[in-house]
Amino acid sequence: MSRGMHGRLRRALWLVPLAAVHLALLFPGFFAPYDFAEQNRDFPFVAPTRLHCVDAAGAFHLRPFVYALKTDDVSSVVQEDTSRIFPLRFFITGSRYSVLGHWHARLHLFGVERPGRLWLFGTDDFGRDVFSRMLFGGRISVCAGILGAAIALFAGASLGVLAGFYGRGTDAALMRLVELFLALPWLYLLLAVRAILPLRIRTIDAFLLLVAVTGLIGWARPARLVRGMVLSARERGFVLAARSMCASDWHILRRHILPQTYATLLTIAVLLVPQFILAEVTLSFLGLGVSEPIPSWGNLLAQLQSYRVLTSYWWMYLPAATLVMLFLLYHRASSALEKRATQVSV
Amino acid sequence: MVRTGQRLLHSLLLLAGVSLFSFVLLSVAPGNFFDELRLNPQISPQTVASLEQQYGVNRSFPVRYAHWLGSIANGSLGYSLLYRCDVGSLILPRARNTLVLTTAATLFAWILALLWGILEALHRGKWLDRLGGACTSLLLAIPDLLLGLILLALAARVTRLPAFGDGLGGAFGSPPAANAGLVSHLFLPVLALTLSVLPVLVRHVRSAMIAALDAPFVQAAHAHGIPAWRVLLRHALPAALNSLLSLLGFSIGGLLSMSLLTEVILGWPGLGPLVLEAMFARDTYVVMAAVMLSAVFLIFGNLVADLFLYWNDPRIRVVSA
Amino acid sequence: MVTAFQDISLDLFPGKVLALTGASGSGKSSLARCILCLEQPEGGQILYQGRDLLALSRAARLPLLRDFAIVFQDSAAALNPAFSVEDILAEPFLIQQRGISAAERRRKSRDALAQVELSPQILPNSPLELSGGQRQRVAIARALLLHPKILILDEALCALDLSTQGQIANLLLELKERNGLSYIYITHDLAMASELADDIIELSAGRVVRSGPAATFTANLQAGPQPLPARSAASDTVPGPEIPWTSNRW
Questions:
Q1: Does residue B296 lie in a domain region?
Q2: How far is B223 from chain A (nearest CA, A)?
Q3: Same domain, B106 and B238
């Protein structure tokens, strides 16, 4: 009993970083030291700010600090100005941001006093903080992924349940439709559906469009899976017993069949979300999704298409590293869920 | 035999359905190729209208669809407004380029996956397996997009491989003529594509191999005193390969469509960049032909996978009889 | 298209047990399912209280079907393993008597468990944690909850071991006396049928080959089953007991 508990606790531990990342992405204003649009034209493509503990005079400080940056007038090289130190502060007041679209706040988790700057991931060509843009962009990309996956799952599962439960005509029609959607390569379908809509649109519309499009093409696989589950659940003895008691279809679905599908639906959901995040990233990368100045991981990656950026500015890869890390966490979560599903199945 | 015939017919019907669906999708698109021209104040609206008339853009849907079906018969596959030639002559060389890339990548990926997967299965649970598992997890989490960009960056800094200049892709147009040139141009895209396809294959090979090694008949072979290498090659491996055949079918199915992003990023003159460009320009027939060609491969690959499954597993034959 | 059964008429009288016997595939379970309208037969009528169940709409059928209940052979399949026994016993109320309060439901469930000689301690358990005999008792309790008049036992004893079979058979006879039920007992076990039943109908390949009081069957057991009557080429009906497909006459 205790070994089982330990195993489950250990597996559940993977959920902690996943939840933490989502929390950070939900409130990017708080976790990011700067606003995503704040430009510093004097400092394009600056490497990540270095944190020091020992100052120029050799004294040790317990609290890490940064130096301000200055541009050398002669050589145009960006250097640290060692004359003044800016210690790292927590819960600092900074630029204004909105929380969940309604409330406004100015509290940031960490930062430094101006004119010092803490650019953890360096800056881009407009001098914008890449770390902050990564967080704000992550909110867009991950939300698009989760919403798109939710739509696809809901639509697919509903159709799958109908097809599996009522069988025959409904089932045959749905399966033909599913095959049609699955016969087209998903990226082509994604591009095609996106391309049939106006190419240049406002950001909010772009986001909603993105979510709708990805949800629209992604319903087929969940539908097929759910239909299979419902088909086999429908044949089980206790469903026949309920029918012998004159239970209505709705009662049978709600109490007997649907609960059998919940575990698998969760596993499918956790598998779908990274795919849909990737769909958003791909579309935005190609210029068909969220566009400047609103950041998304896709258009942050798009900056890497320049040869100069690709080879000289390594910190521009860091948002991509965050993306990979998030995907790793999702994959971990899904294999943990699969293990749990196979253990619990009745 | 009957079942093969049934599935073939089914696939043909599906193909017809796909063509109709794609055509409808593209016809629903607001605007057409000539929108860009309309924005140009130097071109009069009458000219644009007469151009539209000339290219038959405003005809009704059934007429256009029937016309397009006819063009499949004579091989022209419609007309490209952007390049001003038959779509067939435009698409087929590009499709050939894509197939060169994807076939090479799929071949390498399968060979590597077999070796790696078998190795992991043999050393199951030990450090080699765990290291391999971590590598596949990492590769799986890195999207194609990123893989292409990273390889491009590495290539540009480390070697003198063609770095394809500034901006999106580079060498549009005809592929390199000389073979030596071809290999050096091919190296990066094939590497990128192989790495992106590899992790899924390795996982399947590993689990198929483990299932085969755990099977009672393999343990019986060991008990008979047959040397381990022989058991592996003559008993376990064929069983594992059997269950991987349908996966091969899916690999074949993806041959034309798996490399779009890689081609766009690494500048390989295949179907991908062409389709992207055509979509932006609303060059309908090019997109249609590319979609249909990819669908043909996908449907064919699914058909092959399904047939392999059917021939190999007698239980499925009994159930569906 | 396989014809499960043809030309069958059953007469069931209150307080009596009618056994349907025959080899596997003789159409017994299909008949049970048709009576409950779980499957639709190709033709014919199911007359209950003078009304044809097949001709009625679903809504009109419901009050009539409430008098029926069924216990299946495989109790592990017939009880949802994700539910507790309490949930399983609450279900008939949720389906048919929505207005009843939770406390009343619980009281009736405990009474039903007491009737089948089970302790209320098993209420929180899942059916997987019970023995075969206990599960079948729970299934019987569930069937009796809404006070049906006719209980169909579809090979209900066959999956149990011999001693449990005897116990459950005795329980069934007691319940029949106490609640004034009638049983349709479907089985391939002719010996058990002749023990439990008052009348027996033997089916073979979907047709009635023999019917009569249980006593005559015991006498004929030594003789073995009668040969199938020959089919005339002219008509499809079986010469001999010419029974049109009618009803449970009440």
A1: yes
A2: 31
A3: yes
